[in-house]
Amino acid sequence: MIEALISLVITTTLLFGSPGPATMALAATGATFGFRLGTPFLYGILCGLVIAIFGTAVGLAALFANFSGLRLIAQFLGTLYITYLAFKIATAPVINGEDLAAINAPRFRDGFILNLVNVKAYAAFIAIFSQFLLPFNQAIAGYLSTGIVCIIIATVVDIIWLWFGSAISPLFSKPREARILRITFAVLMLAAVAAVLF
């Protein structure tokens, strides 16, 4: 059991810690709006991840395998929404007032929808549940315990990405530099989507 847990922790950390649409969006949000204003977005991402875990565990992987058109539709919708978020971050006004920043910061809903349509999350859980499921006598216990470990690790990793973004934001305090940072993160988000798709 210990070896299986260690393998699961390492794999989950690599899968969810690597740059992807959600992690790039968190870093961009932290850099643009700060850690505190980015926390509702973080909570939304984590709640969307719980739905992705549940959906994968109850057979979304089989549904996508049998109906490839559904997977393509999900990928298309996910790409559209992530593109919208990237545009929102890249074009956010460069402002100093916290009240104005709060109006423009991504919300819980944005994070929730992002991970709900994030194909990378489903692909990661398909890999985890098919190869790194914790060995319990009852299948439901294996899925539940594996899902809990994944959520704990994803929470830590996502907090680190949001903090990283907010930590580097003072380096880009001037309007021109701030715009370059936001556009860079937006491009990285789109590149992460392209990497997942292709």
Count of helical segments? 9
End-to-end Cα distance, whole Å, is: 35 Å
Shape: globular
Strand content: under 5%
Oligomeric state, counting identical vs distinct chains = single chain
Give the radius of gyration.
Answer: 17 Å
Overall number of domains = 1
Q: How helix-rich are the residues, as a percent range?
A: over 70%
Given as residue ranges, the uncertain stretches (5+ residues, pLDDT < 50) are none
Order of helices and strands: HHHHHHHHH
Mean pLDDT: 79
Structural class: mainly alpha
Largest sheet: none
DSSP E strands, number: 0
Structure in a nutshell:
With 198 residues, the protein is mainly alpha-helical.
Description:
This protein is mainly α. The protein has one domain (2-31, 38-197). It is built from nine helices and no strands. α2 packs antiparallel against α9, α3 runs parallel beside α6 (108-116) and α4 (68-90) runs antiparallel to α6 (108-116). It is globular and about 55 Å long. The model has no long low-confidence stretch (mean pLDDT 79).
Please give a handful of descriptors for the protein shown:
198 residues, mainly alpha, 0% strand
List the helices and strands and how they pair.
Layout: H1 2-17, H2 21-33, H3 35-66, H4 68-90, H5 98-104, H6 108-116, H7 119-131, H8 139-168, H9 175-197
